[in-house]
Amino acid sequence: MLFAIKTxxxxxxxxxxxRKLIETxxxxxxxxxxxxxxxxxxxxxxLPVNGYPVQVGFSASTRKFPRATDRNRIxxxxxEAWRMQKQSLYDQLNSQSRKMAxxxxxxxxxxxxxSTIHSKISVILxxxxxxxxxxxxxxxxxS
Length: 143
Description:
By secondary structure, this protein is of the alpha+beta class. The chain is 40% helix and 20% strand. The longest helix has 20 residues, at 114-133.
């Protein structure tokens, strides 16, 4: 029996670590930007069998943040914002029996406050959920 308990964890199995999968994601995935993030995502037929519909990775540029402590802080804040809000996307993907790989690249030159990161991750999650609804329908172009 499945039951809906909100889980605010971010387990090892939810992290995108496979070098091969990351290379495929950047080569074949789709992308969009919501400042200060560049989001690369790809629907997947199969993720490693683990019960999580999304594997996600985070990065910050060494060029923009030469100090590792700054890069680590950005990634830590991003993971925390993701962890707190991911459940709606997970529920939607589970209901559609779909899986997705996502990579968030921080593009700003300054470390944003957590409130900003939290709100931007919220927008990203909504957009990822919306792309899931219309994965077969290409977006209309207006000229």
